[in-house]
Amino acid sequence: KKSEDSGAMAKPDDHPKSVHHATKWSEDVENFYRFQQAGYRDEVEYKQVKQVDMVERWPETGFVKKLQRRDNTFYYYDKQRECEDKEVHKVKVYKY
């Protein structure tokens, strides 16, 4: 399932209309955390920069599995939650 927060609905040339910091963990916050760790705003920006249609995800959880940073090194993520509660407030949630 995709929620509006995931950025999946946005067209490739869209820019976020608003941004706020996450207050509690969710699946969307987990994926924003993973994109932001790798140096991207969100899935929309990642797809624009890397020119890819799909992002590798864990089928069990839907979390992002692997991302390529701008310097072409890879980040590999676990099936389980990686964004700890103390990190949640640092995650930026973009709305389109």
Automatic annotation (TrEMBL):
Start and end residues of each stretch annotated as Disordered: 1-23
Lineage, top-rank taxon, reads: Eukaryota
Q: Name one GO cellular component term.
A: nucleus
**What Pfam family is a match for this entry?**
Meiosis_expr
Enumerate the InterPro entries for this protein.
Meiosis-expressed_gene_1
Q: Where is the composition biased (Basic and acidic residues)?
A: 1-17
Q: Which family does it belong to?
A: Belongs to the MEIG1 family.
**What is the annotated role of this protein in its UniProt record?**
Essential for spermiogenesis.
User: Which PANTHER family did the record assign?
Assistant: MEIOSIS EXPRESSED GENE 1 PROTEIN HOMOLOG, MEIOSIS-EXPRESSED GENE 1 PROTEIN
Protein's recorded name: MEIG1 protein
Q: Organism source for this protein?
A: Columbina picui
